Amino acid sequence: MRQRFKGLLKLLFIAMAILATTQATQAEVSNSEKQAKLKLARIAYDTGYYAEELTKAYLYKGNNEAVRQASAELKEAPGEFLKAYKILDQSINNPKNKNLLLFMKMSYDELIDLIKQPYSLDNAQIALDLSATILEGARFIADDLKKSVDFQNKHIINGFSIYFESIAKYYMAYQAGIKDDNTIKLMKDTVDAAGKAIDDVAKSSHNTVAMNQKMTKVKRLWSIVYKFYLDIDKGGLPFIVFKTSNDLAETIKSYELDMEKVMATDKALQ
What we know:
The protein is an all-alpha fold. The chain has helices spanning about 1-60, 65-90, 95-115, 120-150, 160-175, 180-200, 210-230, 240-260. The protein has eight helices and no strands.
């Protein structure tokens, strides 16, 4: 009887060990899936980023402001957009998102055709609509990817580098002659969202020392330049807006890549 009990106890220990190993493997796979989906979400945001950059650069070059820098972006952004889009197209199987990707590509192709044409105010307005369409699709797909792995942290992998491209876009659009209340509202809403995102991300417990240093740099610059952005109706500072928004966007994109590395840890995925 005692021998039989020892045998049953041994089997129980073996079963518990197998169960623990299985659960650990499942957790590892789950975290790997989360990391992969969060990387895809960041890449989805990238498509929106480069669509905004294209439209901003088209507006700047067309109005003879920051021509050298805008011309460089008009050459670089299409390749970056297509690189990100290709990864999404090959990785996403969800029929709804697949269809949305196709619509985004159609809008992108139309945007590319448009910016090859001579600049006009009518074309600028169409470009604004096309980039807004692409950005909306990009954010929807990114948010859906995060939901698919139940990732609730709104302050991590949120694509907020896009705000700074949008800020420069709206500023130049207003200076170009699209002087309606909606442009001003969009600018103020974007500045408000960017400011809140900067404050939230700067407080993240997942930040490394290097990431905190980048956010300190961002906060210092933002505390000065956000007032320029809000003076969209006064104008007069197109190059400063172009340069500072680019500096902010580049620093934040570097921060976002750092955060993606932090995502490899179990703690950050909780």
